[in-house]
Amino acid sequence: MIKVAVNGYGTIGKRVADAVAAQPDMEVIGVSKTSVSAEAYIAKERGYPLYIADLSRKPAFEKAGLEVVGDVEAMIRAADIVVDATPGGVGAKNRPIYERLGKKAIFQGGEEHEVAGFSFNAHANYREAEGKQFARVVSCNSTGLVRLIHALDQAFGVERVRAVMVRRAADPDDIKRGPVDAIVLNPATIPSHHGPDVRTVLPQIDIVTLAMIVPTTFMHMHVVQMDLKSGTTREEVLKVFERHNRIGLIRKATGIVSNAQLREYTQDLGRPRTDLWENGVFEESVAVLNGKEFYCFQAIHQEADVVPENIDCIRAMLGTVKDPEESIRMTNEALGLVPIG
Amino acid sequence: MIKVAVNGYGTIGKRVADAVAAQPDMEVIGVSKTSVSAEAYIAKERGYPLYIADLSRKPAFEKAGLEVVGDVEAMIRAADIVVDATPGGVGAKNRPIYERLGKKAIFQGGEEHEVAGFSFNAHANYREAEGKQFARVVSCNSTGLVRLIHALDQAFGVERVRAVMVRRAADPDDIKRGPVDAIVLNPATIPSHHGPDVRTVLPQIDIVTLAMIVPTTFMHMHVVQMDLKSGTTREEVLKVFERHNRIGLIRKATGIVSNAQLREYTQDLGRPRTDLWENGVFEESVAVLNGKEFYCFQAIHQEADVVPENIDCIRAMLGTVKDPEESIRMTNEALGLVPIG
């Protein structure tokens, strides 16, 4: 069993911990929090050993009925690998600790590529991860783009990508961020940083991205246009998506045309935390114009799509499973990721 | 003085009426309402003669202290030209009345092109309107696209246009429509109808559009990408916009990066009803990549940008001013449309 520590038990960390616990070849040896919170009680409910950054806060945790096993360094020492799901920028500060203790670590998309020196996506570059001490799972938006671009690049060749990210304003439990009634250009300059981020995994791709933030909480919505190298049809593209195990087709027959309805659907499906781990591609939107010009809308669940990538990244880095498809299949099966459409 | 009747005194009609009243060569001879409402009181406050569709409702208006001059047909008879600003689809039903009475009429973008047989934009096809009995001012989104595309087509030639419309959910006073927390694909199919609508004015343009609705009320946000025929620079493009009298550059120095801040700005400028009559192009977003690939974000005020177009359309159809630039200058001056940036 691979011993996994989750440093930072928040939006991503709590999902990764549950995903690790569900795998047949991994166990959660600890999760960390900096202060008492609702999530700390969830860790207790799940039975994950709780570690804290600053032991002087231990009495506050214990007063709240939360047992603390030790400090974060003790947790890291006990692990084979650490998934660092701390807030953006904190991972870079944690790296020297992992180096000093000689531990492998996976950072999230909130860190710069340089913090790990290697950016990961299971379908695109699984085999390159073996033996690396550090890797970074690219952000939710980049993960969603990389999956789609890589799939079509493999099938038809991709000449260039132009994409618009219409991003959710805040996560559902984030009561401090806005806007409540505005479309915010983020950034107002063109292009956005998402294109270069995709190129940390797919360096050969000509990609320009633009981004804005709108008042919704459930998911990002991507408008993706690609010029393909070989001509194809809508039907051929749909076949590629149907065969892909992390791209879900939202069937026209469901009547779902928004992130809100899609969330209701994943909720009804019984997905934990309503998580959409795969890309949600709207079948109705898939179009091939002029023979080579691909278009679609896809929903990207900002809290969830990177979770299975973290799991695959663990196996890839440790070299316990050599074949990416085998790891992806194991991860999906353990999570209960079956086609949504 | 050109005698103008405004049939349908709502979101667009009330703005057109004020714009007509501000012109030196036009007067409002009447506006129409179907029932008592806040807007009927505004008509009274402005001194516009009030006509109603159904005279049996006259007692209800009079009980509310609103004087009714007569029915809509009487208003039409008294006019040289009618601006039909009734809800989408009603214009088509009104057309036989204008035909029977031999009156010129201007429809709005909520009607099909075929209702008028001629779609209008002041910069693009002013001279073609002369002598026509019917014209249609294209929708707010199409007006915004046509201005931008035509300007760059004149300057550099436009090879193709790809645009994403991120649309406001409802007008600010519309308390019945949603969504409040969703990104709705509208339509979920690609392309949207906006491209063909642009081509009713600019038939030569290769354009593909996509559209969605988000929870905001102030303005639409457009992501516009154009491949230009001749290579150019960001500076040359900015010069085109600076010289254009219905494209406003939102300067980076203002710090405005959203529709909400832009509305606050037009409000502070003292614009009536905070109206942004021109395209709001974000200076910071203007980019020329690879020499010929143009990008920008632009804000389009759904309630306002078609208003000056209706005014120019009146002069164009009646032939009282032959030169489009002269009419545009007169309209802008009377409205107080001075550069925002």
UniProtKB/TrEMBL annotation, chains A, B:
Keywords: Cytoplasm, Glycolysis, NAD, NADP, Oxidoreductase. Its EC number is 1.2.1.59. GO terms for biological process: glycolytic process; lysine biosynthetic process via diaminopimelate. Pathway: Carbohydrate degradation; glycolysis; pyruvate from D-glyceraldehyde 3-phosphate: step 1/5. The keyword Oxidoreductase applies. The active site is at residue 140. It is found in: Cytoplasm. Residues 2-140 form the Glyceraldehyde 3-phosphate dehydrogenase NAD(P) binding domain. Pfam families: DapB_N (PF01113), Gp_dh_C (PF02800). This is Glyceraldehyde-3-phosphate dehydrogenase. It comes from Methanoculleus receptaculi. The gene is gap.
